[in-house]
Write a structure and sequence with these properties.
By secondary structure, the protein is of the alpha+beta class. The chain has 5 helices and 3 strands. The protein folds into 2 domains: 1-40; 43-111, Arc Repressor Mutant, subunit A. A hairpin with a 2-residue loop joins strand 2 and strand 3 (97-102).
């Protein structure tokens, strides 16, 4: 009797895992399509900064983009200004340090 019940438990668990994994895979594919659709509207420099923000969901210091992208700090500033005008990123300042993060609307999509 114990053997039958344990076999049944393994079977039910396997079926549950299969359906949950399929749902997760579909959600991931949908999210990837959303990312690609968003990137189509950006120029190459904006895409690079946007991808770095997606990798670092908590946000980055503006100076970190210079190291990650290889862009000059003036170029980083201009690209971030364009992204802010498009409501893609938000900037908060703490003294001389600017922290850049995705806007709240995009955070919901990419979380």
């Amino acid at each position: 009797m114990i053997l039958i019940l344990s076999s049944l438990g393994i079977f039910v668990g396997s079926i549950s895992y299969y359906f949950m994994a399929a749902k997760y895979t579909k959600e991931k594919e949908s999210r990837d399509k959303n990312i690609e659709a968003t990137l189509n509207f950006l120029n190459p420099e904006e895409k690079i900064i946007f991808k770095e923000l997606i990798k670092n969901k908590a946000g980055l210091k503006q100076s970190a983009f210079e190291k990650l992208t290889g862009f000059h700090k003036v170029k980083v500033h201009r690209v971030i200004q364009r992204l802010m005008a498009k409501n893609i990123v938000e900037k908060s300042s703490d003294g001389k340090i600017n922290k850049i993060r995705l806007s709240e609307n995009l955070k919901k999509i990419f979380d």
